[in-house]
What we know:
Blueprint: E1 35-38, E2 44-47, E3 55-56, H1 58-68, H2 94-102, E4 107-108, H3 111-116, H4 123-130, E5 142-144, H5 149-161, E6 166-171, E7 190-195, E8 202-206, E9 211-215, H6 220-228, E10 232-233, H7 246-252, H8 259-262, H9 265-268, E11 269-276, E12 279-281, H10 297-300, E13 309-316, E14 318-319, E15 323-331, H11 334-346, E16 353-357, H12 359-367, H13 374-390, E17 399-407, H14 409-425, E18 429-430, H15 433-441, H16 443-446, H17 449-455, E19 458-468, H18 472-489, E20 497-506, E21 509-519, H19 526-543, H20 562-566, H21 568-581
Parallel strand pairs: 5-7, 6-7
Antiparallel strand pairs: 1-2, 2-3, 4-5, 8-9, 9-13, 10-14, 11-12, 11-13, 15-17, 15-18, 16-17, 16-20, 19-21, 20-21
Helix pairs in contact: 1-12, 11-14, 18-19
Amino acid sequence: MAESGASMRFTRDKPLPKDRLQELRWDGWGYNDSGFTVNDSLEIEFTGQRYPVSGVLPYLKEFIRDKLGIDITEKLPPSRQFDASLVPEPVRCEEFHRELELSAIPWSDSPSDRLFRGHGHCLHEIAELRLRSGTLHRVPDLVVWPGCHADAVSLVAMATRHSDSMCLIPFGGGTAVSGAVQCPESERRCIVAVDTTQMRRVLWVDRPNLLVRAESGITGQDLEAELSKLGLCTGHEPDSLEFSTLGGWVATRASGMKKNLYGNIEDLVVHLRCVTPRGVVEKACLGPRMSAGPDVYQYILGSEGTLGLVTEVVLKVRPLPPCRRYASFLFPTFAAGVGFLREVALRRCPPASIRLMDNLQFQFGMSLKQPVGFYRGLKNSFLRFYITKLRGFEPTEMCLCTALFEGEQEEVTQHEEKLNVIAKEFGAVIGGEENGYRGYLLTFVIAYIRDLALDFNVMGESFETSVPWDRVIDLCRNVKQRIGHESASLGVQGTPFVTCRVTQTYDGGACIYFYLGFRGDGLTDPVATFQNVESSARDEILANGGSLSHHHGIGKLRQRWLPRFISEPGIGMVNSVKEYIDPGNVFASGNLYQNPESLPKSKL
């Protein structure tokens, strides 16, 4: 599985269209031609040819029956069609409309365009589309597509003049799982969704200084494809790489799977332009480091669309690695795997990506495999015998760690050999390249599973945190136990599906990513029950020393914990920046702030 050149290729060979329904699902994740479905033979299959998983998945059928009690032969879920009549009538701001008509900025008030820009991918947002019983809640009244920085400046100026009767909410890839792009229901002004995806050019590449300047609406996949033509890459690969945008990464302080080698987004950003009601925020040079008071870019990074519209970003780039190699390590227990990750961090030798799945997630990954031929099946049987009988690994305890190495051929070989030695110190069996390759790339497939789950009334969501090393094991155990107790007390039937993986590592700790799901049968409001269970899990995370979020951001979903997490004076500092830079609350997503309705709405 050793490769050279760019990372995983997807089959999309052109940018996403303005009419997202041409290519993407309106009520779920990803492409129309890809996803888990129940076919006419009552088998689960993954459709399309974009991903390393495709075709019938018999083991997945068994897995969800055993773990969630779902029998897919009981019923086939009904098909859903987009119904424009369910989208509320738009609120209009006539003065803004007149100015917009005189500009060259494209716009639309069609129900499908408005609906698509009115939600992200939280459970409650997708469930409203799939399980709805009436008119949908607040959605944008208008969608606009600025084509460049100058368009954005003009648009924000117009909105600032008419802030008594209109506001803006930036929209990129729409992949948020924090409620960040959801329209505040209390907002009575005309809400204009600013879709940045037509600002998608690579403006220049500075090869001597290894920099790229790109517009904020370019998706990660398209940015990497353009850079790879020049033998370069940013190396920033979040799970949402196919759809999330450069501006969205900045707005949420995003993290990528290969951050060990390339850094998180705050490590990559050298320069940016952000259009606010007060003007354009940007620095006067591209120096690699500055000591000029507080870093104003840190106000923009993580601002979640509340201060302005990011239009252009300068990032660090690197030459494409000559060699890319995957690896995997099978550990007898999750604790042994965590110990290995900690040791790798202690010795300062992490590969580009290293991740550890708990046992349940390992079982889920194995269920996505397809049946193999006789000789390969014989080999697999021998390996199972070796691992479980000769090495004594318990099938219900063992865990898989996957790794990705990038660099020069010799460097990669030496790096892998070093990790093999450390892994064996913690009782690991070397799992080989194929499992590492599948484990890395299946990240892009797992996002589709919730849509199938919702078809069978299973509520599901992911959430994450970061925590010091000495609390990783306790936090994982305690959060799982808290979810079990809370679910039972709220009347959830059966055992909740709770699994976790360690996805990013640091010298002082790690990011832990949870998946939670349970059946909604017998519950009056399954979505509300799920939100209560997830909230209790977040309380437990904070009680165990975890962060409010590692990379998903705050949005509206985690807003109520923010004062507790950054302190009341911290909230005051954040609010004071908002009140100065946007006194008319032009950028009215309502994210971050404890009480966004209290912010002033007077004009400049």
